[in-house]
């Protein structure tokens, strides 16, 4: 069983690194194709705060808030583009177990903190999930410059404007869900990343170079049921 859900995503950082497509393809299920921009695949680390998480149709006041961190890339199946999650780390064991059970997503329980500071948004995550590879992220990020809507065909749009996610269930089947939200409003961002082992935890080499970073105050989203690809 899968439940359609609603929530808000707040104070997001999109920290994005270019990667050779064959490196990403080697970590994907056979059913998915790597999406590229100017010949390069991308891996993105996205920390943020979930707010008012609840089943669709339930009042927002009944929802829960929890910080979250994911590592993702960009894929397509039969021409349908989307995001593929390698891992999602979140606060709250019950929420993690629910996401694994009802949405078949690779969630891991972690100690996660997000707070505002004079330097921007401070975010720290350390995975505590039993039997899982260790993963840690510590950093501070802040918006700079004016707000903008990503232009169609731009790198910013490629890295943010996706309305479907794909995941692989434990039985190896490909599943997906559609996401509805307003187009992103972004700003360029600075990010001081002190620690990031998400790449290694998911079988990639540590990222090299300075990431391309964007910040968003957030959007409200509604997700369909997670369905098996037939």
From TrEMBL:
An example of a Pfam family matching this protein is DUF2071
Annotated protein name in UniProt: DUF2071 domain-containing protein
The species this protein belongs to is Natrinema pellirubrum (strain DSM 15624 / CIP 106293 / JCM 10476 / NCIMB 786 / 157)
């Amino acid at each position: 069983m899968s439940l359609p859900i609603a929530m808000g995503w707040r104070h997001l950082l999109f920290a994005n690194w270019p990667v050779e497509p064959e490196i990403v393809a080697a970590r994907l299920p056979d059913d998915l194709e790597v999406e590229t921009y100017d010949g390069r695949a991308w891996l993105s680390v996205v920390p943020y705060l979930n707010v008012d998480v609840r089943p669709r149709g339930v009042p927002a006041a009944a929802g829960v808030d929890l910080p979250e961190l994911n590592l993702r890339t960009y894929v397509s199946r039969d021409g349908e583009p989307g995001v593929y999650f390698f891992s999602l780390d979140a606060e709250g064991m019950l929420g993690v177990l629910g996401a694994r059970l009802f949405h078949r997503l690779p969630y891991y329980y972690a100690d996660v903190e997000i707070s505002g500071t004079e330097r921007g948004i401070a975010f720290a995550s350390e995975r505590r999930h039993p039997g899982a590879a260790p993963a840690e992220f510590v950093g501070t990020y802040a918006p700079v410059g004016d707000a903008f809507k990503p232009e169609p065909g731009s790198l910013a749009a490629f890295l943010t404007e996706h309305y479907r996610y794909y995941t692989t269930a434990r039985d190896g089947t490909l599943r997906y869900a559609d996401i509805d939200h307003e187009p992103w409003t972004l700003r360029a961002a600075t990010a001081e990343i002190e620690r990031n082992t998400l790449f290694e935890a998911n079988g990639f080499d540590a990222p090299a170079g300075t990431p391309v970073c964007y910040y968003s105050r957030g959007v409200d989203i509604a997700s369909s049921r997670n369905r098996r690809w037939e």
